[in-house]
Amino acid sequence: TYWFVQDWKEPHRFAPGSVFHLIEPDINQELYGLPEYLSALNSAWLNEAATLFRRKYYQNGAHAGYILYMTDAAQSTSDVDRMRQAMRDTKGLGNFRNLFMYAPNGKPDGIKILPLSEVATKDDFFNIKNATRDDLLSAHRVPPQMMGIIPNNTGGFGDVEKA
């Protein structure tokens, strides 16, 4: 229901359906314009996606942490099978374990461990988190020291009152 009030004593009620209210944002004003946070939504979604990816990465435990490259003929088939089973058992909760391989008369480079987890987890997680945090703070025009964020440099953020 829409009303029009000429004077405070004479309200006029419009009949339902007689007024068409076109809701269209106006970028030239703040009251009915686009919200200031709209430009930061992509940063917020990227921040959330990075966090969810990192959580799932560590929770599922199904990622390959390394490649065990065996070229030494000193190992028997049963040794290789037991090593495979030991590697399978390291997945899931508590998956950060060490393995021991005894290889008498083995070559120095007969068994190599090629780490993948260092490459996989080096996905710029902290850079993404910091960049998206800065985007959100600038969209809301909040000085970082007001949010309790610790500066990365020795100079700090400067004077909060002048920010």
Automatic annotation (TrEMBL):
NCBIfam families: portal_PBSX (TIGR01540). This is Presumed portal vertex protein.
